[in-house]
Design a protein that fits this description.
The structure is a homodimer. Chain A folds into 2 domains: 357 residues, TIM Barrel; 59 residues, no CATH class. In chain A, 51% of the residues lie in helices and 10% in strands. Chain A is built from 18 helices and 10 strands. In chain A, helix 13 links the parallel strand 9 and strand 10. In chain A, helix 6 runs parallel beside helix 10. Chain A starts with 7 loop residues before the first helix and ends with a helix. Chains A and B meet through helix 5, helix 8, helix 13, helix 14 and helix 15 of A and helix 5, helix 8, helix 13, helix 14 and helix 15 of B. Chains A, B: Its cofactor is [4Fe-4S] cluster. Chains A, B: Pfam families: ThiC_Rad_SAM. Chains A, B: Its EC number is 4.1.99.17.
Chain lengths: 426, 426
């Protein structure tokens, strides 16, 4: 394990917040400090983000859930994105990512940062490409300088974590795009843009070539690098292939280099992965990346559920958490179809929170066991307020349940088993 | 293994339908015939059910999905139940259960049978108790004769499978209801009614005492007995306790007796089970019940997701299928809150179908692998019609997707990775 000396911004955050952060996770100071030093835990928090509550991600903290927001060029509404942000936070998202690729990105990001007390993540490459498209230029006609400057701008704005596709090498892209290699080639937007750029310009990944500058910027603002999985499988049948593992190997190497410069990293994970491969994938990625916090998208355990992909992702997410994933990126019912609407955002966050709870129960985490126990006790009392208080979505219980004065619900009525139990022992 | 001589009604069904049934499952005649003889597969089909398509359930057939329908005394609408039936069938339910406990049950059942080309299941005990409630009598004031006659009536009507709670013994109920034994006692309606009846009348389970008559009726009409899990855990913390396994042991014994009389059986399974216990539960139940087809409700891997319990159940269902479950009873978003509405029915069926698909992919079942592969190939072509054709819910793709003429969807627009792949290789 390489030695890790926290960047100054991180050290200042730790000095100020560590006791309260550790307490909120039910962990000792020593446990948190040691995990951060080892890189198995990161502290998200850019000092320039106004009103931010810093957040710990990684074992053995509570599993976190991210909601992706952001307009696309084809569907842009400032107000609806702000509504989605509010709904994501109400539903319990621990972080949000602004993945906007439409509208005026820089001022929207400033507004989101101001409105968002939780860590905000971005994919800086989108801003670079969007500027080309806005200028009616070739979308691949950007330079490494443009990308480094975008990272610097966003870091100064207060972005807390950034997806940087530093594992997409020419070798990896060739493996993914070789004839007969994959059914679905590259499905990550950032991955495919990077691959196309490298091919067009005959150059290696610009982030690898400019790594020193990128790491300096991230160290200065304590931006956590979320090492993007640009070659993640987009079909179950592509999961675990050479391209995927080639990228993971590179990510593990980049993670070491970043940490040697005092920069914290997370690793992004798949993608589409069949049920029986989820555990092995999670364990393999963790192993190759020195146990760095793993941030997974899904994984989706089936390919054929468009319109219901939050469910396919919750199945994979639950297993991923059981096997060591730390951070779940939500998937909404709109995935593979269209930009999510407000209700999709709520469903996506709830599905990921269910997955996290399921996995954490399997891991025996006290807060997860306690929640399950308390709602079950409330059920035994037919105590609807107690059920709502311990439900992942209390408002849902109030809206669809029978109300605090009723005993049984409309599902069972006089046939309520719990009421029968109760009567029997009166 | 006891020898099994199919009842005459079953033999007639096999003689007529076996080649087509085997072909539709992609199995050989011998494989199906042997599995039915061993009791690891059952053929649902009561000759009195008009227009029925008989259905195979059990390894290694395609995993089936059941939708529970039926009004409660507190929410009864004939038309809405018929709409739910239509929606359940459209969404792909392989069977339905009419669990009505309100309205005029017998004629509704006749209408459902006529309208329903898939096997229909019931819980006869509900009809018996409902009659007492309609007469303003004590709900526990029914006799074993009443229950046997209800089973006979429904068998003659054409009901294809019946949940009979034959594993709820006085010993099991005492174990479940002992002080400090469980957080949530008995949560099955049929289980709690049976337990209360035994306690009130000081008698053993009436179905065990009248087993010969019940088996005669079921043999005459080829009613498949779905041996109800009246003592299933209703909270994760109760899963795997003595009461649950006591019932499973009894169900295994009853299954042997039924098969010795030519009656087919399925076993009903939990319930609320933490993620890490699902595999062991499924394997244990299968072992104790001689591999009889296992019909699971969920299992729900968390207790705290009212309003989203179809997701908690899909997580458990996927793992259950991976470990050998044969038949998934859907759970809707309304579970634990209220009677499902039409949209809940659709969501519930789809969630179970996703779970089945995920589990079957893990098992390497060819039809499941093919569906995943074909939709992924359609994605690689940006072929929205092909995606719809292979989606679990084609109508959803048509409704929310971009339409066949568009290439990219509104989620990614110009950033579409698949389109970038395509352009690169033109």
């Amino acid at each position: 394990m390489l030695s890790f000396t926290p960047n100054a911004a991180l050290q200042a955050l730790l000095d100020e917040h560590l006791p309260q952060l550790a307490a909120s996770e039910g962990l000792s100071l020593e446990c948190v400090a040691q995990a951060i030093a080892q890189g198995t835990m990161v502290l998200l928090g850019n000092p320039a983000h106004p009103g931010l509550r810093p957040l710990l991600v990684g074992q053995p903290t509570r599993v976190k859930v991210n909601a992706n927001l952001g307009a696309s060029p084809m569907a842009f509404s400032h107000d609806s994105e702000m509504t989605k942000l509010d709904v994501a936070l109400q539903a319990g998202a621990d972080t949000v990512m602004d993945l906007s690729t439409g509208g005026d990105l820089t001022p929207i990001r400033t507004e989101m940062l101001a409105r968002c007390p939780v860590p905000l993540g971005t994919v800086p490459l989108y801003g670079v490409v969007q500027r080309r498209l806005d200028a009616k230029a070739d979308m691949h006609d950007w330079t490494a300088d443009d990308l480094v400057e975008e990272i610097r701008l966003q870091a100064e704005q207060g972005v807390d974590f950034m997806t940087l596709h530093m594992g997409v090498t020419r070798r990896g892209a060739d493996l993914a795009q070789a004839k007969d290699a994959r059914v679905l080639g590259i499905v990550s937007r950032g991955g495919s843009i990077t691959a196309a750029w490298m091919r067009k310009h005959g150059m290696e990944n610009p982030l690898l070539e400019r790594m020193d500058e990128v790491l300096d910027i991230c160290a200065r603002h304590n931006v956590v690098i979320s090492l993007g999985d640009g070659l993640r499988p987009g079909a179950g049948v592509d999961a675990g292939d050479a391209a995927q593992w080639e990228e993971v190997i590179v990510l593990g190497e980049v993670a070491k280099l970043a940490r040697a410069r005092g920069v914290q990293v997370m690793i992004e994970g798949p993608g589409h992965v069949p049920l029986h491969q989820v555990g092995a994938q999670i364990q393999g990625i963790k192993r190759l990346c020195q146990g760095a916090p793993l941030y997974v998208l899904g994984p989706l355990v089936v390919d054929c559920s468009p319109g219901y992909d939050h469910i396919a992702a919750a199945i994979g997410g639950a297993l991923a958490v059981q096997h060591g994933a730390d951070f779940l990126c939500y998937v909404t019912p709109a995935e593979h179809l269209t930009l999510p609407e407000v209700e999709d955002v709520r469903q996506g966050v709830m599905a990921s929170r269910i997955a996290a709870q399921a996995g954490e129960v399997a891991l025996g985490r006290p807060h997860a066991l306690a929640r399950n126990l308390e709602i079950s006790k409330a059920r035994a009392r037919l105590d609807w307020e107690g059920m709502a208080a311990n439900a992942l979505d209390p408002a849902m219980v109030c809206r669809r349940g029978p109300g605090a004065k009723e005993k049984a619900c409309a599902m069972c009525g006089d046939f309520c088993a719990v009421r029968l139990n109760e009567q029997l022992f009166k």
